Amino acid sequence: MSEQVAMTDPVDLSIGGMKGHIFRRIFHLSMFFIPIVYFEYGMDFADYVDLTLHQVVSVIVIIAAIGEGIRLKLGFTVFGQRDYESGQVSALAWGALGIGLVLLLVPTKEYAYPLIFSLTFGDPFMGEIRRRGVEGNNVIIYSSLFLLAIWLLCWNLFDTPLWLCFLMAPICVYSEIPRLRYIDDNATMLLIPLSVIIVLEPFIGIL
Question: Is the pTM of this model over 0.85?
Fold first, then answer.
């Protein structure tokens, strides 16, 4: 069995059809609140529950993993999920893991914001332009420009290194392209760019 899956219309696979698809997109976009909540209110919440901020993130990831394990054991999907997710780790769970690792490994605004925003806005953007008939290299070009705008915004707001924006935007795009059978692009769009950031971080300050 091939580890690559064919490109399909996500509406056809969504629980709830078009309404489920729209709900999924809205939920995906709403994740842009996560770094805002983390950086603006995370420390206060951690102090309130008498944990470190890293411990809070770890607890949330663990709860998400346990919840996903229960869902898989029972074999059900909910409104907005894809029907094939009844038997494999869902996009939501992969996203929770990816975002959790970003906040644990590079918990600074200059990295966390553009990485998470690239997933939050970039993945739906790429999916929707494909649904409208854009194909091949044009998807890569349009998406790279879109994500470059996001990284440049973060350069302006959070001091993300400027040269890094031009490198990471296409990397984030190419990280979405593999259609892996069991690893959702919510994971690859965060874990591949995160790995690049971690490897380059010792040199970022001197470049």
Answer: yes
